[in-house]
Amino acid sequence: MLFSPVKRHQSGTMPESWQSLKDGAWFLEQEACRLSLWWPRFYGYYLVKVGPLASAFDCSAARVQRQWYIGQSGQVQCQGTELPLQGRSVDVLVMSHNLEYSTDPHQLMREAERVLVDGGHLVLTGFNPLSLMHLCGFWRKTPPFDGHFYHPLRIKDWLALLGFEVIADERLLFGPLPGRNPQWLEALGENYAHFLGGLYVLVARKRSIPLQLTPALGRRRQRAVVPVTGTVTGRVARQGGPKAHRE
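Below the sequence we write its predicted structure tokens.
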């Protein structure tokens, strides 16, 4: 067994938007600001954002040809934790707080590994349970704070087992009150208590598997990110392009 079982008492409620989170606009601003430093470093054919929170990120600075969004509201819809995408078809996969509300986070991580190309990047953001915000009781076991929050070190272990190389582990929010902590406290935490950050941003690269080299025959065919037959229950929409319907 690749992963040890995750004990879950109940499934949390995935927020439909940042506005449904307490101080959600502030969380979005902080995560988006930090990720804005990363988008220009990504390149390839396709960037896919999974879930309603990830859909709010402006990834226009990424050097990719097209962006897709998987979630509710008429976009590609998933059945459970399966991503309706072909294997090795995505260059950048972005998931924001998805693991916290997933009924099977291990399967979701396996799906991320499956759909990413070798050398592709996985971006994960979430809440850190070992933080002042958590320890001081900011979270309550009521929606949308009824998810299961995993420590970033545990997630990094999962990534290592799946063959990912973690290239960034960044933390934000070092005080107990989002947006209302004194600057000196934030600076103190960032410099001396990095592990106590209330938000984490993980960037991982899928390691390439060496293959036998063969001569290129003609021009390389462009990969196509399309839903896998039988896994789509809604309609497909491509950001910046026309919508295609599929049953």
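The radius of gyration is 18 Å.
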